[in-house]
Design a protein that fits this description.
CATH superfamily of the largest domain in chain A: Periplasmic binding protein-like II
Largest interface: A-B, 31 and 26 residues
Number of strands of chain A: 13
Oligomer: heterodimer
Strand content of chain A: 5-15%
Distance between the termini of chain A: 44 Å
Low-confidence stretches of chain A: 3-19
CATH class of the largest domain in chain A: Alpha Beta
Number of domains of chain A: 2
Mean pLDDT of chain A: 87
Order of helices and strands of chain B: HHHHHHHHHHHHHH
CATH architecture of the largest domain in chain A: 3-Layer(aba) Sandwich
Distance between the termini of chain B: 22 Å
CATH topology of the largest domain in chain B: MetI-like fold
Shape of chain B: flat
Largest sheet of chain B: none
């Protein structure tokens, strides 16, 4: 027993050999080209320690995968590690005692000092204990512009949202879809959030999403946001794809002018061999308010009740945050690393923009961190209807939105 | 279960000594104990548990102590998505009930005319039933896709202005799903109907032929009333399929465009697992149960209440 304890404590430092090799089943929903390449980096790193990474990729977006993951944990068939968006999604699982406390790993590795921004670690912390290992920062606040589409339309590539809106007519005249947009609910809701921050500003966003101020949500400032979203809806009217990566593909091939999508879209451009600044342009905060939200992915480790496996889980937790793995993974994924002390000189244009904003501290919390899954779900229902039904007026949608924020907990 | 051991046997027996009803058919009763227990514990017990929790503020995990009364129901009935779901279920339900029965019976009647190659046709018609709803949904998503499916084929034949794009039109998307549902299910109904038709005594046909009654009239006036139990079976199967329609929608449109092809079962699943709001999901599923009971109770009353009277 003492031997086990000793190995558990020192696990982060002495990798393979000290513990028996374990097969770790890891579930995640990284299945698009760029994502799969990134997750392979994790698998490679874990396999190198003598343990085996058993890939449990779940196709579909987080919306499909999360219920499967959570019901497996609740149903008594937990995987060894799983991706979730950190924040409030796992709140109740932690309270029910279903997830492994990895505070000792975090302390041994000094996560408190290296993880930047510290809100990422806060989102993993419940009652002073740490339950997840953050692996990347994903921000929603990006618009991706296709140089080819703008060349064909004969107008310069815009540098902010207003210029972009003005260029929409020219794009349409050239037979392009001004705004590519997948029809899944989370995409509608996400794009709305981005417009919210860009048009309404950070302060308004915080008031509504953090303080849950229903009055602000129904106010005149927010009305402008809804008007802008209605305009964007008209620009996306001809985009009839479902998945986000299909929409990104419209931008890559120059059939669409732009897409509002998080920085994970970057991975797709990379897989397609496109170069930032030459083939496509990215504008953080839609070129208006240069802020990024710092949500992202984290790995949680469901309790197994087996000391050997627990040791291997903790080893994996340490590995995910280690510098080398962070660099390899995030370069492939197009996301930002969770630690500020590593060299990302090989990062491309867009990632560098993101890193600068991060270093300057222009950050907001992500929707996953401030809103419960229930409230996010209600907003998604509203947004997917709003984006797809041109007869749904901005004012009606705003009234409904204010109601949801008023009921939020 | 309870219906089977009453009636016939008792009236045939001479009432010499009054037997204890409890011990009559003891082996049969013992054998049905596991099923009775399953029904009580699993079906009724879990239904009660669900209904109870629909009055609580359960989120990701059940919370029996957080009582909120009718809050979940108030929220449910003020949610547009739920109202759209109910409307879709009504349209899908009525159309699929009527069309499945009509198409299923017509196909069965045609096959029953002793045509050549009957087994080939039967196989072809039944084949879609071998596919899951997921595959059916995906196949019809492609068939109805304006760039690859029916629309483009007809346009290539020269009818340039032809448009048939139900899946991207919020007003008619539910009919796009209906087409797929009918395609998948009517073959199965046909087989049931065919079995029923084969059960009709040959002499009946001979008799009607002697009387000179036209074939179509024989079907409507004689055969269909005789096939009543078969129709009831088909009806139950179709109705069960309607109320649980979920995977077809997920595969074909995932509720889109917008929320225009949402169905109640999808609302339940998503609220329970995606939005982590069990209370809301339970409230919705309780409403689904209520809607089934609203249909079932009057029907059962007519069916079984009527028999007792005569």
């Amino acid at each position: 027993m003492n031997f086990m304890k000793a190995t558990t404590a020192g696990i982060a430092f002495c990798a393979a050999g000290a513990v028996s090799a374990a097969d770790l089943e890891v579930t995640h929903w990284w299945t698009s080209g760029g994502e799969a390449a990134a997750v392979a980096e994790f698998a490679k790193a874990l396999d190198a320690t003598g343990h085996t990474w058993i890939d449990g990729a779940i196709a579909g977006s987080g919306g499909t995968a999360r219920p499967i993951i959570i019901s497996r944990i609740i149903g008594g068939d937990p995987m060894h590690a799983t991706q979730l968006n950190h924040g409030r999604q796992a709140e109740e699982l932690i309270e029910a005692g279903l997830l492994l406390d990895i505070t000792d790993v975090a302390e041994a590795q000094g996560w408190k000092d290296i993880i930047n921004p510290s809100s990422l670690l806060d989102s993993c912390t419940v009652d002073g204990k740490i339950y997840c290992a953050p692996v990347n920062i994903h921000s929603w606040q990006w618009i991706w512009l296709s140089h080819k589409a703008y060349e064909d339309a004969g107008v310069p590539v815009p540098s902010n949202w207003d210029e972009y809106v003005a260029s929409a007519a020219a794009l349409e005249a050239a037979g392009k879809i001004p705004l590519a947009m997948g029809q899944q609910a989370w995409q509608s809701s996400g794009a709305f959030g981005v417009i919210n921050v860009a048009v309404g500003g950070v302060e308004l966003w915080n008031k509504i999403n953090v303080e849950k101020d229903a009055e602000a949500a129904g106010g005149a400032e927010m009305a402008k946001v809804f008007e802008a979203a209605a305009a964007a809806r008209a620009m996306a009217a001809n985009s009839n794809v479902q998945d986000w990566n299909q929409a990104t593909n419209l931008v890559i091939t120059g059939q669409a002018g732009a897409q509002i999508m998080g920085d994970w879209a970057q991975g797709e451009f990379q897989v397609a061999g496109q170069v930032a600044g030459e083939d496509y342009t990215c504008l953080p905060g839609l070129g208006v308010n240069e802020v990024i939200s710092t949500g992202g992915d984290a790995f949680y480790f469901p309790k197994q009740g087996d000391a050997d496996i627990e040791a291997a889980q903790k080893e994996l937790a340490a590995l995910l945050v280690s510098p080398e793995v962070q660099v390899n993974f995030n370069l492939k994924k197009g996301s930002l690393p969770v630690r500020g002390d590593i060299d990302l000189s090989s990062a491309n244009d867009c990632m560098k923009k993101g890193l600068e904003i991060l270093a300057a501290g222009n950050i907001l919390l992500s929707g996953d961190q401030v809103l419960s899954a229930d409230t996010s779900g209600q907003i998604e229902d509203l947004m997917v209807e709003f984006w797809n039904d041109p007869s749904y007026s901005a004012a009606d949608a705003q009234a409904k939105y204010a109601e949801i924020i008023g009921d939020a907990d | 279960m309870a219906v089977t051991d009453s009636g016939g046997t008792e009236s045939a027996r001479t009432p010499a000594k009054k037997p204890n009803r409890l011990f009559k058919n003891l082996t049969a009763k013992l054998a049905s104990v596991p099923m009775i227990l399953t029904a009580i514990v699993v079906f009724i017990g879990c239904t009660g548990w669900t209904i109870y929790h629909s009055f609580t503020k359960s989120r990701l995990l059940p919370a029996p102590d957080k009582w909120v009364g009718l809050d979940q129901y108030e929220r449910l009935w003020s949610t547009r998505r739920w109202l759209v779901s109910i409307e879709n279920l009504a349209i899908y339900g009525i159309c699929s009930l009527v069309l499945s029965l009509v198409i299923g019976f017509t196909l069965a009647a045609l096959l029953d005319r002793k045509i050549r190659g009957e087994s080939v046709f039967r196989t072809i018609f039944l084949y879609p039933f071998a596919l899951s709803f997921i595959v059916t949904g995906l196949v019809w998503q492609w068939v109805l896709n304006p760039d690859f499916g029916i629309q483009s084929v007809v346009q290539r034949w020269g009818w340039e202005s032809f448009t048939f794009d139900p899946l991207n039109n919020a007003d008619i998307v539910i009919y796009g799903i209906l087409i797929a549902g009918i395609w998948q299910g009517s073959g199965f109904i046909m087989v049931i109907m065919l079995a029923g038709l084969r059960g009709i005594d040959e002499d009946i046909w001979k008799a009607t032929r002697v009387e000179g009654i036209p074939v179509w009239k024989t079907y409507i006036v004689v055969i269909i009333p005789m096939m009543r139990p078969v129709f009831v079976t088909a009806l139950v199967l179709i109705a069960a399929g309607i109320i649980k329609v979920y995977d077809l929608v997920v595969a074909q449109t995932s509720g889109g465009p917008g929320i225009s092809s949402e169905v109640p079962a999808k609302y339940v699943i998503e609220k329970m697992f995606q939005s982590q709001n069990l209370g809301q999901g339970f409230a919705a599923s309780t409403m689904m149960l209520v809607s089934v009971l609203v249909v079932l109770i009057p029907w059962a009353y007519l069916e079984f209440g009527g028999k007792r009277r005569d």
